[in-house]
Amino acid sequence: MDQTSNLLKQRRDKANLLQESGVNLYSNTFKIPVPITDILPRGENLAAESFEEDGMIYRIAGRIMSMRKFGKAAFFHVQDETGRLQVYAKRDLLGDEEFKLFKKWDVGDIVGVRGRLFKTKTGELSVEASKMQMITKSLRPLPEKFHGLTDVETRYRQRYVDLIVNPEVRETFRVRVDVIRLIREFLTNRGYLEVETPMMQAVPGGATAKPFKTHHKALGMDLYLRIAPELYLKRLLVGGFEKVFEINRNFRNEGLSTRHNPEFTMLEFYQAYVTYHDLMDLTEEMVSWLAHEITGSMELTYQGQDVDLSPPWKRYTMDEALIEVGGLDQKTLSDDAGIMKLAKEKGIELQPEAGPGKAKTELFELLVEEKLVNPTFVTSYPTEVSPLARRNEKDPGVTDRFELFITGREIANAFSELNDPDDQFKRFEQQIAERGDDEEIHPELDHDYIRALEYGMPPAAGEGIGIDRLVMLLTDSPSIRDVILFPHLKPEAGM
Questions:
Q1: Checking DSSP bridges between strand 125-136 and strand 305-308, what pairing results, if any?
Q2: What proportions of the chain, in percent to the nearest 5, are helix, strand and coil?
Q3: pLDDT tens across 400-440, in order?
């Protein structure tokens, strides 16, 4: 029998002995304990080896995280959602029978304790137990006390254990909750209406990605988990809502990486009668404010890189970025054949139907993106790679679009919206014609969206921000899996 099997058998044996002694291993009678963080301040003015003068009895409940057993006494730490507190268990106070049952408790068990506060000789605030109760017996041991749960894949796969033994992980997800709450507060205070649009769509649109497909039997039709909410949010602009946002999941049937998970959270917001310039200002204000609210500063460190989120942020056109950061020259950028040749020389594989706009965008991703550490807006994306964005009136070869980069990663994508139904129809047709063997571009044309535009959509701008990547930045997390509670993984061997 290996060590793990032996430990599991020992736990089961203890559980059986407790049950035979009449102990309910999964009790539900210990009600409304006091949060440990509410108790800790009580010990600030308590002298060592002193008890609370008022003799107040406290009720705490949580998981045993450490245990030191002696002959007639023991110390153990109980952890609840808010913190940890030491408990002193003494046979003379508990009685022989209760102390005997306590000896069969293990690290990982969830227990309830009643008792008075006191401070030990070393000054640690503790509860002297007068009554203890098994609430839930743990049948599996927690990771070793001093090593914790360190295997990355095991941490992701068994997030429930990761949250128990790694307090910093719990803090990361508290920050995630705060980020979403503050974004809602920011946008709601500025008159945006939070809405919900379909997760299952007959025609997936709003992005270039391969969707997940399912079938609805009653309707007799295929449906797709949405790759983006964009086209439905813009339908709401047609309907008369002028400022809308949604925070919800998108699904893309693509590979896994430190930046990509097939299920992820996006913020998308749209506003009528503004341009992408207005959204740059709004984004700068929102993200810098959010960072200050979360971290107390606009200066932070991400994976060893110093990042300053203080406004104003740098703004480049794509051509300017390729020249100033990527080292190219204006002559090359102005020569369509030259830019295509350079892309091939750099090892960029282009589809036969790809033009200079696609080549330029790929060169930007290769030569510039990772160098944009401090927040930088990049504007004037080629029309060829921006099928939903409004053409620039002075230069129709580019669009009124920006992407925001921080620490070399795209955080946001936004543009002044294309509201000309004829232009949109042609671009959809071109997108389908260029599909080739690329399954990521769905072949269907969204005729209902074109019909909506024909009723008239006011001039507007819209934006998407990756919540997961934003949380990664604000918590110094190297992988998107660190900020998603239950990331997708390959099947576990043997399960």
A1: unpaired
A2: 35, 25, 40
A3: 999 999 999 999 999 999 999 999 999 888 878 776 666 55
Contact 51, 116 (CB under 8 A): yes
The CA-to-CA distance between both ends of the chain, in Å, stands at 20
Residue 232 CA from chain centroid, whole number: 23
Identity of the residue numbered 323: I
User: Looking at per-residue confidence, does 374 or 257 come out higher?
Assistant: 374
* Integer Cα distance of 7 and 143 in angstroms: 12
Distance CA 339, CA 177 (A): 44
* Three-state DSSP state, 349: coil
Residues whose CB falls within 8 Å of the CB of residue 268, separated by 6 or more in sequence, listed in order: 228, 229, 230, 233, 245, 246, 462, 463, 464, 465
- In angstroms, the CA 236 to CA 449 distance is 11
SS3 call for 474: helix
Rounded to an integer, what distance in angstroms lies between the CA atom of residue 416 and that of residue 228? 17
- List pLDDT tens digits, range 4-28: 788 899 999 999 999 999 999 999 9
The residues, ordered by sequence, that sit 6+ positions from 123 with a Cβ below 8 Å of its Cβ are: 48
Closest CA to 472 of 410, 404, 379: 410
Kindly tell me if the per-residue pLDDT of 146 is higher than 50.
Answer: no
Taking the model in full, what pTM does it have?
0.92
Q: What domains does the chain contain, in order, with CATH numbers?
A: 3-142 (2.40.50.140), 165-326+368-482 (3.30.930.10)
Chain mean pLDDT for the chain: 93
Residue 60 contacts residue 86 (beta carbons within 8 Å): no
Rounded to 10 deg, the angle between the 447-455 and 421-433 helix axes is 160
Q: Would you tell me how many other CB atoms lie within 10 Å of the CB of residue 298?
A: 17
Q: Which residues have C-beta within 8 Å of that of residue 92, sequence separation ≥ 6?
A: 72
**Does residue 312 have a cis peptide bond before it, meaning omega lies within 30 degrees of 0?**
yes
Q: Is residue 286 within 8 Å of residue 294, measured between CB atoms?
A: no
CA 290 to chain centre: 15
In single-letter form, the type of residue at position 134 comes to M
Helix, strand, or coil (residue 89): strand
Task: Give per-residue pLDDT as tens, 362-376.
Answer: 999 999 999 999 999
Evaluate if residue 442 carries a pLDDT over 80: no
Q: For tokens 């429930």, name the residue.
A: 160
pLDDT tens figures, 161-181: 999 999 999 999 999 999 999
